[in-house]
Amino acid sequence: MTEAQYLSGRLLLAMPGMGDARFDHAVIAMCVHDDHGALGIGLGQVREGISFHGLLRDVGIDPGVAPDVPILVGGPVETARGFVLHSDDWGGDGTVHVAGLCALSASLDVLRAIAEGRGPSKWLVALGYAGWSAGQIEGEMRQHGWHAVQGRREILFDTPVENRWKAAWRAEGIDPSHLVAATGRA
């Protein structure tokens, strides 16, 4: 595996005191990481004021049998653009398989399939994404901004939004209450 592929399929956890309030306690599912940069979808914050049924109606889709779930803040880039992270038992045009963690779709086809009851068995919807230019995320990780952990489907799909950050640390054997906001020098 090359360094550029390392983060695909992993979860990025914001370190305490990283200095960017938009990413406080962030959990990011890393979907693409290559020589051109990285793209991830935030999993740790609900977007207020919009529900899944409201989103479906906004794009002209009858909600049908879909549950009315919260929409996540996927990140600060293109906040009106929607993404569906889902189990790999469904795929459509443009679906990207994310290194053993999930699949990512950004077309209306996946929303229609969910509304009609023929979509993926597990899914979540986010507006926006987190993006980094080539080499940027690696630099942020060296500066105590992020920590990469194993991507776990149970954290993605089965853990309540507000518990994902702590659950991801604990799954790595780390008690997040022991993390500090600054690093030392030896």
UniProtKB/TrEMBL annotation:
What is any Pfam family matched here? Answer: DUF179
Report the superkingdom from the record: Bacteria
Protein family (similarity comment): Belongs to the UPF0301 (AlgH) family.
The protein depicted here goes by the name UPF0301 protein HHL27_16415
Signal peptide extent:
none
Gene Ontology terms: cellular component = cytosol
